[in-house]
Design goal:
With about 150 residues, the protein is an alpha+beta fold. The protein is built from two helices and eleven strands; from the N terminus they run E-E-E-H-E-E-E-E-E-E-E-E-H. The radius of gyration is 15 Å and the shape is globular. The two termini are about 30 Å apart.
Length: about 150
């Protein structure tokens, strides 16, 4: 089941939920919001953004977690690992995969930091782009283009 074409494989901590994310990665980011801090029990969450059509569940049935509102966070029903978030916007549907859920996580610096107004004082990531809140929707197209140009 996990040999379904090129892409990055990953899953939750217990292995019940498995997924594949196919290129291209549209953005990498760190979110410092209080919600991400609480859901990860850490200073921030790390994500890789993919077009919704490029994300495939291979096994398991994730359930809604977090605030159960938009965007929708999905967790494993068995181990409660936060696996991904589905974001629907005017420019499309996206899946933000928690970067540490990949079998071989990307080790590069996140391209974008969000909610820096809520970050813990000692955190210094140094991403090329940082926003006190979330970037306005009209900025995402340019951010995606810049990230993809840098990634090639």
């Amino acid at each position: 089941m996990e040999t379904q074409g090129p892409g990055k494989l990953g899953g939750c901590r217990c292995g019940q939920v498995r997924f594949q994310a196919k290129p291209p990665v549209l953005l990498t980011m760190a979110c410092h919001c209080k919600g991400c801090q609480r859901m990860t029990a850490s200073a921030f969450s790390l994500s890789e953004m993919y077009a919704g059509a490029n994300f495939e569940l291979l096994s398991g049935n994730p359930v809604q977690g977090g605030m159960k509102a938009s965007p929708v966070h999905y967790v494993c029903p068995e181990c409660s690992s936060w696996v991904y978030t589905k974001v629907s916007s005017t420019i499309g549907d996206f899946i933000n995969v928690r970067a540490t859920m990949f079998d071989a996580p990307d080790q590069s610096l996140p391209f974008l930091e969000t909610c820096t107004a809520e970050k813990l004082d000692w955190v210094e990531i140094g991403a090329p782009h940082a926003y006190e809140k979330f970037p306005p929707h009209e900025k995402f197209g340019g951010l995606i283009q810049e990230f993809m140009a840098r990634s090639t």
